[in-house]
Amino acid sequence: MTAIELEGLTKDYGEVLANDGLTFSVDTGEVFGYLGPNGAGKTTTIRMLLGFISPTAGSGRVLGHDIQDERALIEAKRQIGYLSDEPGFDEQATGDEILELHAAVKGDERSDELLELFDPPMDRKIREYSRGNVQKLGLVTTFMHDPELVILDEPTSGLDPLMKQRFAEFLRREKENGVTVFFSSHILSEVRRLCDRVGIIRSGELVTIEPIETLLTRSGKAVRIQSEAPIPLTVLDIDGVHDLETSIPGDVADVDPDSAFTECTFTYTGDINRLLTALSEYELLDLSIEEAPLEDVFLRFYGGENDV
Amino acid sequence: MFEFLRYDGRKRIKGSLYLSVGLAVLAGMIIWIYPSFRDTFDEDELLAAYPQEIIQLFDVQTMTSLEGFLAFELYVFGWVILLGLYFAYSAAGVIADEIDRGRMDSLLAMPVSRRRLLTEKFAALGVPIVIVNLLLPPVVLGGGWLIGESMSVMDVFAVHLLSIPYLFACAGIGLICSVAFDRSAIAQRVALGVTFALFLMQSVLQGTDYEAIGALTPMEYFNPNEILLEGTYDLGNAVILLAMTVLFVVISQFWFVRKDI
Predict the structure, then answer these.
(1) Which candidate from A47, A89, A106 shows the least CB-CB separation from B110?
(2) Cβ contact A87–B111 (<8 Å)
(3) Cα separation of B106 and A101, whole Å?
(4) How near does any CA of chain A get to the CA of B256, in Å?
(5) Would the pLDDT of B164 be above 70?
(6) Which of A57, A217, B53, B155 holds its CA 20 to 30 A away from the CA of A211?
(7) Do B11 and A74 touch (CB under 8 A)?
């Protein structure tokens, strides 16, 4: 079954095409990362799914309900938790009062457990809250009615590293309990820890949808080699070596830095055995092969933009 | 049902009490200065001293009785103008403020229709409207008693009761502005401007060929002089004001449901 379905969903503001014919679906029980640079149109998609803005073309369904049918969408919202990218609560109210309103409208199945986990200061007024505390209260109100589907817009913004960690663990447990998660982010490392599949959006258009493993395989490895004696550059003349950077200390005499190296780093997307065979006849001081940061992958495969 | 009405209503209680205290002070002052006016001027000497335009603008009938004095100083000025503007202004924040401060998403993510949210938030304005009109009659009557003037208890309660639909209608004007403009500062300014313009229109056009246009304004249907001086209560007027309010709410709903927020 599909939790979210988009069919050519479009939002055209005239001067800006915020979402351009988006078609994809999110399966029930899946954690789907919706990824893209700031301003790519992630929030626009989310706000259309929740009926805050109406599409100019195309259609969408959440939990089987048409997003353009208000009554149907309200039915769906009983089972949806939503955290906006900048959650806003009545500044004059205390956390407790906000929670009470949410509980009265959509029910409260588990706020105690959530309050223990995220711990926003409930007796203080919202206007005294820090950005992080607002986010924590937002997380509590998002999950308190034990929704089947949660839609999270940049959920970790404002959280400190400890809370980010706690949130990641929490989300993993939710996934095990069968909750479907759709979350947007511009931070790839976050997505990689949590998601099954990733959809990448750029300038309102869907660039690709891939399982996270595929993305990681495509991403290749970050390789670092160090040796005592210079190694000829031709050794690395094999498929799958990208972004090669080499260096050689000045005190190694008679070696052309353009033809040999004692230290190098590169990204490798080829067969790892082939690389090791090529290096096997040289004496190495150190060799490290690590997963490449997803940021690099993104840049390599989808063209460069600095804010991802 | 009514969760948002309860929530907003509760939030408005404190403000309603402050508003009542403010108006009680205003009423107290007006009643307190009345005896010196009464003793200084004969008949309607004071009234005659006012320019004709002011008399028409505020629909001043007489100042020789406490009722006439209050009708002008307190009810036309305090209720028709000040409170009318105040509730138009407050209502203008009902939707626009939530959008402006980024709170609307959190509200509409809950399983609630836009129509219901708007209606309940508007209805919560009933809290200050009713509280003010419940607390002020005893103040006015007590003040009159203290300066040795007797007033019709019925009339005083009637003027307050009949002001309730009037104030709701003014709030309805604000509500439309609240839906029409995303920025609450603009919505509130427009609401103030429109309400005051309607007041001017109604009073200035009176007695001219264009008098009929005044019939489109809420001010036409709430007349403190008539109630306090003649003791006539026109319930038809109250019905018209309620119908206006419903119309304003329905227009706002229609608009809000179709709007991108």
Answers:
(1) A106
(2) no
(3) 11
(4) 11
(5) yes
(6) A57
(7) no
**Helices H, strands E: what count in chain B?**
12, 0
pLDDT tier, A305 (very low <50, low <70, confident <90, very high otherwise): very low
Asked if pLDDT for residue A97 goes beyond 70, the answer is yes
For range B100-125, the mean pLDDT: 96
Count of beta carbons in the 10 Å neighbourhood of residue A103? 16
Q: Measured between beta carbons, which residues in chain B are less than 8 angstroms from residue A89? A: 103, 106
Q: What are phi and psi of A157, to 5 degrees?
A: -65, 135
Report the residue from B3, B102, B103 with minimal CB separation from A105: B3
Q: How many CB atoms lie within 10 A of CB A273?
A: 8
Identity of the residue in A52, A78, A141 whose CB atom sits nearest the CB atom of B108: A52
The residue of chain A nearest to residue B102, with distances taken between CA atoms, is: A88
- What pTM does this model have? 0.86
Asked if the C-beta of B113 comes within 8 angstroms of chain A's C-beta atoms, the answer is yes
Q: Is the pLDDT at A261 greater than 50, yes or no? A: yes
Strand A31-35 and strand A197-202: pairing?
parallel
Q: Is the pLDDT of residue B38 over 90?
A: no
The three state secondary structure string of B162-197 is: HHHHHHHHHHHHHHHHHHHCCCHHHHHHHHHHHHHH
pLDDT at A185: 87
Mean pLDDT of the region B195-223 = 89
Distance CA A97, CA A90 (A): 9
Q: What is the ipTM of this complex?
A: 0.89
Class of domain A221-291: alpha beta
If we measure between CA atoms, which residue out of A271, A265, A264, A275 comes closest to residue A220?
Answer: A271
Mean pLDDT (chain B) is 92
Q: Is A135 on the interface with B (CB under 8 A)?
A: no
Q: Are residues A115 and A109 in contact, defined by beta-carbon separation less than 8 angstroms? A: no
Asked if the C-beta of A101 comes within 8 angstroms of chain B's C-beta atoms, the answer is yes
In three state form, how does the secondary structure of B51-77 look?
CHHHHHHCCCCCCCCHHHHHHHHHHHH
Number of domains chain B contains:
1
Helix, strand or coil for residue A16? coil
Average pLDDT (B131-159) is: 94
Judged by DSSP in three states, A292 sits in coil
Count of pairs with CB atoms under 8 A, one residue in A, one in B: 66
Q: Nearest chain A Cα to B1, which residue?
A: A105
Question: Which residues does chain A have within 8 Å of residue B101's beta carbon, measured at their own beta carbons?
Answer: 88, 91
Is the minimum CB–CB distance between B110 and chain A shorter than 8 Å? yes
Stretch A147-172: mean pLDDT, rounded? 92
Topology adopted by domain A2-209: Rossmann fold (3.40.50)
* Residue-range domain boundaries for chain A: 2-209, 221-291
Asked if the model's pLDDT at residue B60 lies above 80, the reply is no
Q: Which two three-digit tokens encode residue A32?
A: 């789907």
Instruction: Note the pLDDT tens digit of each residue in A227-240.
Output: 988 888 888 888 88
* Phi, psi of B67, rounded to the nearest 5 degrees: -60, -45
Taking the Cβ of residue B3 and every Cβ of chain A, the question of whether any pair is shorter than 8 Å is answered with yes
